[in-house]
Write a structure and sequence with these properties.
The chain is an alpha+beta fold. It has two domains: 3-89, 2-Layer Sandwich (Phosphorylase Kinase, domain 1), CATH 3.30.200; 100-282, Alpha-Beta Complex (Aminoglycoside 3'-phosphotransferase, Chain: A, domain 2), CATH 3.90.1200.10. Helix content is 44%, strand content 19%. It contains nine helices and eleven strands. It has helices at 3-11, 52-66, 100-112, 140-158, 164-180, 219-227, 233-242, 249-268, 271-282, and strands spanning 15-21, 28-34, 38-45, 74-80, 83-89, 125-127, 130-132, 187-189, 198-200, 206-208, 214-216. The protein is globular. The chain starts with a helix and ends with a helix.
Length: 284
């Protein structure tokens, strides 16, 4: 595929340069320069990731409505010769301004106040390159069990990674989730909120990218921020001051982190499998 020609057709502009940039394991990424603007391009194969960018566009649109700071503007989603392309504005990186983490915590809390009648989303989407089920449910423990934990536990069993013992432990934990987690209204969550999925723009403000959204328990986002080292203390202080978490939230983090750990174990194996096994054992 001649990317330059395809982009000129999509953008109806003369493309000066298409520069590959470092990306994740799902998409190829490029910085696209025209005479007037700079764009960010993602490319993958439609046959492998059906509607991937359609779902990403929907996620970004939902975040844009609820998050006070910046979310990339989507130019369009296109298909060409079996490939799908997502073209967005290019965000120039900057340095965090004073009070960045306090502001970020406050704004995430405000975003989490956007609620819905049920947990889930109007369509299935992706987390990383794994399909994510979002069938609506009025009960969080049922939603988390049926749409998040058990599908991946069974996948791990099919892969020969989990034994019957882990399956039984997971099923037992799922029966207890309703007693472990506090009752809360569904909250709009980013769904994959780690340090690689936000940017800092030239004004020193947070920019949310790569969503895996749903209406879920808001502690899911908090758990994800803590999974790979955590954000600075100011972030959590500001969040809890703005939208207090129920007592004991730190002790519940492993339950909320089990889903992203299962995602990573499914995709990458290795030490993530051990962390999943340890989590299941802790609650059995």
């Amino acid at each position: 595929m001649n990317l330059k020609s395809v982009l000129e057709e999509c953008l109806n502009q003369v493309v000066v340069r298409v520069k590959p940039i470092h990306s994740g394991h799902v998409n190829d990424a490029y910085k696209v320069l025209t005479k007037d603007r700079c764009y960010f391009l993602k490319v993958n194969r439609e046959i492998v990731f059906s509607n991937y960018f359609v779902q990403e566009r929907a996620g970004l649109a939902a975040l844009k409505e609820a998050f006070q700071h910046r979310v990339p503007e989507v130019v369009g989603v296109f298909e060409h010769d079996g490939a799908q392309l997502l073209i967005m504005e290019y965000i120039e990186s900057g340095n965090a301004n004073e009070g960045f983490w306090t502001d970020f915590g406050q704004q995430l809390a405000a975003m989490h106040r956007k609620s819905d009648a049920s947990f889930g989303w109007h369509d299935n989407n992706y987390i990383g390159n794994l399909p994510q089920e979002n069938t609506r449910n009025s009960c969080w423990s049922s939603f988390y069990t049926e749409n998040r934990i058990l599908p991946l536990v069974r996948k791990m069993q099919d892969m020969g990674v989990f034994s019957n013992k882990q399956i039984q432990q997971a099923e037992k934990l799922c029966l207890e989730i309703n007693n472990i987690l506090p009752k809360e209204a569904p909250a709009l969550i980013h769904g994959d909120l780690w340090s690689g999925n936000f940017l800092i723009d030239k004004k020193g403000l947070p920019v949310l990218i790569d969503p895996s959204i749903s209406f879920s328990h808001r502690e899911m986002d908090i758990g994800m921020t803590k999974l790979f080292g955590g954000f600075p203390a100011e972030f959590y202080a500001a969040y809890t001051a703005s939208f207090p978490l129920a007592p004991g939230w730190e002790a519940r983090l492993p339950v909320m982190q089990l889903y992203p750990l299962l995602v990573h174990a499914t995709l990458f194996g290795g030490g993530y499998v051990g962390r999943c096994v340890d989590t299941l054992a802790t609650f059995n």
